[in-house]
Structure formats: structure tokens, C-alpha cells
Amino acid sequence: MGKKISPEEASNRVRRFLKRGDVLQHVFDRDVGNLLGNLNKPKRLAASIGIQVVQEDYFGQLGYNRSTHTTEYLGLYDGDDKRFDPSAPLFYEATDPRTRTFCLNDRSLEHLRILRYRYHRFSRDDIAVMVATARKIANMHRQPDGSWQGDEYDFGHFFSFLLWDIMGYPRDATPMLDQGETRHICSCYVRAILESLRVHYESIGKPEVFPRLFNIGDLTMWKLAGKLDHVKTGLTGNDGSTEIFKTPLDWTWPACFDNSHYYSNEFELIAEFKDGRIRN
Known about the structure:
The chain is built from eight helices and eleven strands. By secondary structure, the protein is an alpha+beta fold. It has one domain: endopeptidase fold (from Nostoc punctiforme).
């Protein structure tokens, strides 16, 4: 175990890794960051355990179910004056107590998994669409320190996850305690940002550029995991032989990004850091 490093040095290590030519294939790539969560507070510890238990029930022991928080890296883009800084380490997240942005230094010593979308390299215009969505749907406003803050965390939606699982109700049912369209939980917020890009491309007649996430299932994977109980009607599996349950936006877990191999392999793990050090 080496000596402890500062958040700034840990952040620099992450950024240097992401700038390597074999990793950063395009300057405007933006990634999903999954964290295993800050467990220093009892409330967050209890929530993290609950998330992990339900994720393991859903994806099974073959899945990676430890992630408990999802963020989206969007750099720094201001649609009003067209400034864009591809090196700015700015993330968006829906969290307790409210939606906000944070810099990599703030989380660089946590257990961080960086997941990259496989099938599309995001352009400057793509980032503008996603940033505008991130701010609009959460009513975000710029703070004196330059960060952004928005609506409060949707605790009702979060507890609906747990209640529906305990009660065994359909996972495509509406969250019972949802507190409104502008409040969000972390993984649903990040997926909403990404899905806004799909809606954009559909509106200009190019739906093939960015398909709906977690929409087609790898039936072999679900079978190996012993989770074919999630197979339902209405969606063709990737082998064309049967149908599989798709994940509604409102029921997106952090583990959906970690386990996209259960779907269409939309995301790949490109790096994992803990205490600012890369893990094999």
C-alpha cells in the first residue's frame, strides 16, 4: 500500500489515463462514471446496501452489482456563448440533497468505474444537447462558485425501487412514490440525459445514430444468469428467437450501465480507480 495522495494528484492521474491515445479515441467523448458510493454516513450505507441487494436480485450473481451511484461527465459547455473546454472535468449528478455538478477532484479518491458508450463518438453538438437537457430537466441554476444546482433528490422514486422489489410487482410499473418530473435519482437522471440525444437524432430523421438504451437483450446472458423470469412480451431479443423485457427509463439502476452486456453491450469499462490508483 503506497502513501496517500492528494485529491488533485488523484484527479490528474485519472485525466492523464483518459487522455492516452489508446483510450481517448475522440476529443469529445464523454463517459458515465459509476461509483461504489460514500459509505461514511449511516443513511448512505443503508441506501447502498439496498441498491446492491436489489441489483443482485435483478441481474444475478454473474452481474457486477456493487455500483451504487451514477454520474455523467460532460466537460464544460455553455450553449449561450459557445465556449467548450474538452479538458474540463465537470460531472452532472442527481444526489442527496439535490442535483448538482462536481469536479473530478471532489471524487477522485473514491472507487470510480469509468464506462464508455461503444457505438457513437459524441460531437460538440451532441454535448450541447446533453448539457442543455441536464440543466433543463432538473431546473439547474449557476452558483457563485461556478457550479450548477437544481431540484431536490427524488427519495420517493428511490424507495419505490425497493418497495416494488419486495412486493414482487412488475418492474415496468410506475414508481409509486415518484415526486414529480423534475426530481430524479442518479441513474435515471444520467439515462435521461443520454436518451435526450436519441430523441434529438430521431427528430432529424436519424434514429440509427443513437438507439434506445437497454432495449435489446442478450438472451444467452439472461439465461446463464438464471434470470429468464425477466423475459416478457413486446421486444425481440438479439438472437431473433424470442422476446425480452426492456428496461424503462424510470427503472434504470447503476448496474444497468455496468451490465450492458445483458443488453446490447452499449457500454464498456475502460478504467477503474480506487484511491487515485488504477485497478486491474
